[in-house]
Design goal:
The structure is a homodimer.
Chain A lengths: L2 H6 L10 E8 L3 H11 L3 E6 L3 E6 L2 E6 L1 H4 L9 E5 L1 E5 L5 H10 L6 E5 L2 E7 L5 E5 L7
Parallel strand pairs in A: 1-4, 6-9
Antiparallel strand pairs in A: 2-3, 3-4, 7-8, 8-9
Chain lengths: 143, 143
């Protein structure tokens, strides 16, 4: 074994990352996004800076909505921000799935597609900024 | 009570969304992103289409990495895609936090900032596409 190789080796395989804590989307109008995520998706709001962000709690995770024109300015935290239509999928109970479809349609939001997966069902729609949201009635992924 | 008002009411308040299932990032080079998330962050890979995406499992959630130039083309699923530097925060055990910092630095990745929150600690760094990643040693948000 070459001792020099050992020296320059990167650190050993790290322990596992256990979960995603924060998922971010970027929006142009925070008040409009707040109304949508709070009133239509019924998320529990946990923070707001009217010029920069609005935050929501979902189970063990957090959904962060930012104005990219603000977060791209370096501040206390390193800069970030994106333009476009980001995808995020939320989990609902199978017993609530049809009620969610009625609820989304009741707000005159188009359901763009519905898919039956081997492990469950999901449907796709858009937030007011065009981000592509999905509601799934099961964990449709390999464990 | 005005019966007409009742008629135009949107659907009743829906049941809660229970969790975020899928979090998406967009990358230019899937092979490079795969090496970073699989080999540096040690995530468990659960899918790959060499032209379109690579997927990873994290606890009860899934991290989806897409090439936006492909997902913007409407296909089986509605189009999505973003340009820029998206933020995502991952959770690690407090016992593993310092080992993670050493591990990231061992791969010659700069730690751009470290923050002590009321409920824990976190540090920030970038993936090869500039997405702003954070590793936190606790759920630093109100429940």
């Amino acid at each position: 074994m070459d001792p020099e190789e050992t020296t320059v080796c990167p650190a050993e395989q790290p322990p596992r990352i256990s979960a995603i804590l924060e998922t971010a989307l970027y929006v142009a109008d925070l008040d409009r996004a707040e109304r949508f995520y709070r009133d239509v998706l019924a998320l529990r709001q946990i923070g707001k800076d009217p010029d920069r962000h609005v935050f929501f709690r979902l189970g063990s995770g957090v959904l962060l909505l930012f104005r990219a024109d603000r977060t791209r300015q370096a501040g206390t935290l390193p800069s970030h921000g994106a333009d476009g239509e980001i995808h995020v999928c939320f989990l609902v109970s199978p017993a609530d799935y049809e009620a969610w479809k009625r609820h989304i349609r009741g707000h005159e939001i188009a359901i763009q597609r519905e898919v039956t997966w081997p492990q469950g069902r999901s449907f796709f729609f858009r937030d007011p900024d065009g981000n592509l949201l999905e509601l799934a009635d099961a964990d449709i992924w390999p464990r």
